[in-house]
Fold these 4 entries.
Entry 1:
Amino acid sequence: MLYYPLFLKLQGEAVLVVGGGRVALRKCKKLVEAGARVTVVSPRILPEFEKLGVQVVAREFRPSDIESPKLIFAATNRREVNAEVKRCADARGIPVNVADCLEECSFLVPATLERGNVQIAVSTSGQNPRLAKQLRIHLEKLLAELDKESERVDHKHATS
């Protein structure tokens, strides 16, 4: 399945992340960088969440947690909870990313690379995240080489 590539403006937007482990933490970091107002719901939360400035609700997920977020991430280690989050999100028409089930995702999060105002997203439509990561690493190296070349050219022109 092909997905439509898209960059979302999340500055100030409510985003719900259900889960308090490493996968949820990784997603939260990127959401906070994008300026989203993140609420994390999980009975157990890694201490690193405290440093992110997200709202933490330390309890099990409830359907009432889904009021009006722009996006929802289901990132628990419990299949039944992730499936319930998906059902609730679908009932409200809210896009959801389900960490443990590609088929239940209404959107994917690509591997990304940022350099200044340039953002590059790489996706394999969820089929091979490892390849997407390898492509991102290769692009990072390529951009670093281009930066060096640009600096050489800029320096050459400045001294001419």
Entry 2:
Amino acid sequence: MKFVAAAPSEQPTGPYGPLVAMPELVPDALRAAVAKIAPSRVPALTQHVFEATSNAQRTSSLAPLRAFVHSWAVFVAIERIPERAARLRELERVVNEGLHDPTAAIAEIQAIREAAEAEAGL
């Protein structure tokens, strides 16, 4: 199964649908979504936002905060649809095991990530 980008107003279709709506691209909304779909990842998100905020202040740049939002928005867009998240993990396993030519798996991983970026409005 391959995933294609949905228009930002569309929801991917599937037998179960998304676990949560795509949140606003702000730290509190992303944290709330992660708490619902992958609670074990909240500490990593909290650490990342702390580091991004510190780096933004230190460098007088919003780039670290933009990178934080991009990273976690893509994570939420993928993980909120269990079928898509499972497929991504399966493809990553294929690439990491190195038993087969990973070209097709890498291309599908890229397609999943691009669809997630589009869904998140990035």
Entry 3:
Amino acid sequence: MSHSNGRILLHTNWATHRREPPLTVDVEPLVQKAIRRQCAVHTIPLLAVGVADDHVHVLIELPAQMSIATALRLIKGGSSGAIAEALERRGLWQRGYYARGVSEASVKAVLEYVLNQRANHASKRTIDAKER
């Protein structure tokens, strides 16, 4: 049993290579499934995943002994193969990511924001700091 614990909620997003828009509505279930699978395999609690045409938002609970870089390497790297194969392309994700801690008080708002990516972008209700 680990002696390290805590609850670190993290809102992350990353973009497709060159911000190309291959993540259509038809592909969205595949993207969500691939990310959910990687989170499950690596024991990273996933609270939400939202997909837009050229990027993905994820709300996770970061395991106490895992760095942000490691968690995102595992999620991005593991999901890229399955998605890229289905899209018949290579190099799905851009390098880098956005990551920000989420307070317990703002979890509901961030969860709603992540889950409603397509609607947020369609109505231009995005938050610039979260869309980098």
Entry 4:
Amino acid sequence: MNKDRETILTAYGLFAAMMAASFIPAAWAVMTATILYFIALAYPYYARKRAAAGGLTENHMTYIIRTIWIASLVAVATVAAGVCYVLALYDPSSINECTQNLMNGGMNAEACIADFMNANRSVLYSGGFIAVGPIAFYCLWRLFRGARKALNMLPLQNVNAWL
């Protein structure tokens, strides 16, 4: 495998690993995804700096860097929208009753959390989808589009575009 192809596929592999770790609902996966986020962002900068100007590696590294930065910026808005959605529609009655029972020693905290989750499950899932769905779709689309071109050793057209 030539060096450009190896560098480009490594960058896409890091990006894919970051995306995969992001969807595992466990604390270790969140930490892994966070570490991979920084590596998946730093590696293309490093590789682009070492690449020939106007070459295939520079082209794909710019594409990956822009994808990560745009996704990160848009994530701020989608997470805010998801939080606003949840705050506007959740039912606090179960947690209010639970708080009173906890203070009187009649219920444990795990039962309170279970009651709250059951009462608000659809709102929480919808808010989570609002927060994560657009970013996941955008990143996966860009990942598959770029990786497909990289596997065929083709440059991407208009790497500075948002889409």
